[in-house]
Design brief:
mainly beta
Length: about 300
């Protein structure tokens, strides 16, 4: 059984013929937001409809990390190693402190409540960037059905706590990721629920003082659409898709696919050498070892 599909011959150097896509946890409803904690040798991920964050430890299996979780979705770590979470239920971005207490990073903008923060990254200057589509308030499945007060924007919260809407022309921004040198920002637009909006990945140039320009379409995932994304150390973008994980070169062409039997929602690099890709996909979590390393 082949676990990958090679489109560009160069992709053959990224995969290992004896390294399968392995299911490491299952039995969930819709998993999202994987984040690797190397210092604790564990993976955290969200089981959104069941309102909990799960923890997987190699050799020990899965346990509950936090329940309830405010219907948490995407996660990352800040530059101090703390957990940053997007909470649908709280309509906020939060930080888990070393003592386990929760600090609110953002829950409103210009006096109006956020929609349902979805995915989040932290830049080298400590600023937190996150997307705020409406998915968590559109139904009661992944949060609480509520009135939308703000457009679906991309926000940046700098180290001082000052917040700005940096991208305001998306239908529903979703996954986002920086290139390794932070000169490019990639943002997925998955469109509004129950619409026929375009679904694609856009790319922006990051200039002085983090000013964004450009915004052209970088790649269109098919089948399915881009949701969660990560980059490897050479700037190749790895994106979720309906049939697995797609690897896209810096110039935007498809290099190859990792084939997964469920619709993939998100991914992250982890493991001993950041060479293992963890994949959240519908009801399960998968992993595969690659001949690549994730970007720092």
């Amino acid at each position: 059984m082949s676990f990958f599909e090679i489109v560009d011959p160069a992709f053959g150097q990224f995969v290992l013929g004896n390294a399968p896509v392995k299911q490491i946890a299952t039995g969930f409803d819709w998993v999202e937001g994987p984040v690797w904690f190397g210092d604790q040798n564990c993976l955290l991920f969200s089981d959104i409809p069941n309102n909990r964050i799960m923890r997987w430890i190699p050799g020990l299996g899965t346990s509950i990390f936090r329940e309830p979780s405010n219907f948490s979705n995407g996660h990352t770590r800040d530059r101090q190693g703390r957990l940053i979470s997007c909470e649908h239920g709280g309509r906020r971005v939060s930080r888990t402190e070393y003592d386990g207490s929760i600090t609110v990073i953002a829950d409103s903008y210009q006096g109006k409540r956020l929609n349902s923060p979805n995915d989040v990254i932290v830049a080298s200057d400590g600023a937190i960037w996150f997307t705020d589509p409406h998915y968590g308030i559109a139904t009661d499945y992944e949060g609480y059905k509520s009135e939308q007060e703000l457009p679906c924007n991309v926000y940046r919260v700098d180290a001082s706590g000052s917040m700005s809407a940096v991208l305001t022309d998306f239908n529903c921004p979703n996954g986002l990721a920086f290139s390794p040198d932070e000169k490019k920002l990639y943002v997925a637009d998955t469109g509004r629920m129950h619409s026929n909006d375009p679904q694609h990945i856009r790319v922006f140039n990051v200039g002085e003082n983090w000013r964004l320009t450009g915004g052209e379409v970088f790649h269109v995932i098919t089948p399915g659409c881009a949701d969660g994304m990560r980059l490897d150390s050479d700037g190749n973008l790895w994106s979720s898709a309906r049939d697995g994980v797609h690897c896209i070169a810096p110039d935007g062409h498809l290099m190859g696919k990792l084939l997964v039997p469920e619709t993939v929602s998100n991914i992250c690099f982890g493991g001993r050498g950041k060479h293992k890709l963890f994949i959240t996909a519908t009801t399960s979590v998968y992993s595969i070892s690659l001949n690549r390393s994730g970007a720092l």
